[in-house]
Design a protein that fits this description.
The complex is a heterodimer. By secondary structure, chain A is mainly α. Chain A is 43% helix and 6% strand. In chain B, a hairpin with a 2-residue loop joins strand 2 and strand 3. Classes of the chains: A mainly alpha, B alpha+beta.
């Protein structure tokens, strides 16, 4: 687990082909859970899907289909495009990158970050509501969607300030009680966002912080999700981020399947004589 | 501008349940395309008569417009792709004929896509001489007891004809009963 973060610290520039920083660490947690958990362990663990139908997660069927449909449109700017072929080898089971068509990835990149412009830019006055001329000044502080900030940062046109979700207050909240932090309403893409933000911002502590948060929340979520009832939505589910919610759903559905499996034989082997009603009056 | 509307389109799509579609939002779709045209106009005005290599302010402005167009394109493509996936699944889980409510949600070109997809699957199944759409879940039993929910009338199944009146019980082969069950005209009778 620690090796992943050491390698991230050493290299300054990371590309999107890096294995997911939480991947290896989380697979250790998963090994302790049921085997079902391993096979349908959504985005964070990046497990391979076996028997894709049961997973019920969008990501599962997409992972299967992605192998067939890989045609990235040509782009003028050279984005580090996600590796089109799933990697093989030891790291394979922990790493599948979100695809071009992945909707939750697109929605995640729409999160706003605050940036400071190093250069001016003409003709884009709509980005900055406070400007009179149709341009952005050098040194202006603006909120941009993450996809835009990411590209501009790569070209050294802006610098990204760390958003509040990874700031000091959040760190204190997590230290106090990680399981109570409300990620579902405030930052539903907490982990994914952190992983993408990590290489762009100078702060090296985001990686370990994310892992620590997830680890602390996982313990409680594991026990609660296996015992959660199917119809009622427990309150703590609203506090889960998107990735944690997928795990939660996976656990819940696997428990349902398990219960069905436990009673499966009774239906077939029920003798017909048991179906007859007992005659109560024996006269 | 700057792909916010496109993101709203995708929000709408992702808020639906798995396997369901919201109605095709043609208005927003067209608005996003118009936004792309606007970005393209601004882009053209910023790079006119300028040397591409100099990284002045116009360069960055035009770059932002270019990125917005790429982003809008990605959002629209993802929208179409997700809807196409769901439409494909309709063929397998609903059948050849779509009920009215689903058809109303589809764009004209999506309906065409569905028809073409059906004909491709049908020609493939004809070559194999095998109906692939039955038995999506492997059955435990080749025959199944069914109860007819709405009046169907005389149907010839295999070599004999069965009259399927309302609320009658039959013991049919699963392959024969499946099309009716998926349309909701029969239900499986489970003890």
């Amino acid at each position: 687990m620690n090796m992943q973060f050491l390698s991230l610290k050493r290299k300054e520039k990371t590309t999107l082909q890096k294995p997911h920083p939480l991947g290896l660490g989380l697979s250790c947690f998963i090994l302790r859970s049921s085997s079902n958990f391993i096979s349908i362990h959504g985005r964070i663990g990046q497990g391979r899907e076996k028997g894709g139908k049961k997973a019920g997660t969008d990501f599962g069927t997409q992972a299967l289909k992605r192998r067939g449909k890989r045609s990235f449109p040509s782009q003028i700017t050279s984005l580090p495009s996600p590796n089109p072929y799933p990697p093989t080898g030891i790291g394979a089971s922990t790493c599948t990158m979100p695809g071009y068509y992945d909707i939750s990835d697109i929605l995640m990149e729409d999160e706003a970050v605050s940036v400071v412009f190093h250069v001016g830019a003409n003709g884009v006055g709509l980005l900055d509501p406070g400007t009179e001329t149709n341009s952005v000044e050098k040194g202006a502080k603006i909120d941009l969607p993450f996809w835009l900030a990411h590209e501009l940062c790569r070209r050294r046109a802006v610098s990204i300030t760390i958003p509040s979700c990874f700031g000091q207050k959040m760190k204190k909240d997590v230290q106090a009680d990680a399981a109570c932090v409300d990620l579902g309403t405030r930052y539903p893409y907490f982990y994914e966002f952190g992983c993408k933000l990590f290489p762009l911002v100078g702060d090296k502590s985001i990686g370990p912080f994310l892992r620590h948060t997830f680890a602390s929340r996982y313990k409680e979520m594991l026990s609660k999700s296996h015992t959660a009832s199917l119809n009622a939505i427990p309150k703590f589910v609203l506090r889960l981020s998107k990735e944690e919610y997928q795990l939660f759903e996976a656990a819940r559905s696997s428990m349902v399947e398990f219960k069905k499996w436990r009673v499966r034989d009774l239906g077939l082997m029920k003798a017909t004589i048991l179906g007859h009603k007992r005659k109560t009056d024996l006269h | 501008m700057y792909a916010r509307r496109a993101a709203q389109l995708l929000q709408e799509l992702s808020s639906c349940e798995e396997g369901q579609l919201p109605p095709f939002n043609g208005d927003k779709f067209d608005q996003v395309i118009r936004e792309c045209e606007e970005h393209s106009r601004q882009f053209q005005s910023l790079i006119r008569d300028k040397d591409i290599e100099t990284k002045n302010e116009d360069h960055y402005g035009s770059f932002i417009h270019h990125l917005s167009i790429i982003r809008n394109k990605r959002c629209l493509m993802a929208y179409m792709y997700k809807r196409a996936e769901v439409i494909q699944s309709y063929r397998w889980y609903v059948g050849r004929v779509l009920p009215r409510e689903i058809q109303d949600k589809l764009n004209f070109s999506e309906q065409e896509y569905f028809k073409n997809y059906c004909s491709v699957i049908d020609s493939y199944m004809k070559d194999l001489d095998l109906d692939l759409t039955v038995d999506m879940v492997p059955p435990k039993d080749p025959c199944v007891r069914v109860r007819v929910l709405s009046e169907i009338g005389e149907v010839s199944l295999g070599d004999h004809a069965v009259s399927l009146t309302k609320d009658s019980f039959h013991f049919l082969r699963r392959t024969d009963a499946e099309p009716f069950i998926s349309q909701g005209l029969m239900e499986e009778f489970v003890e």
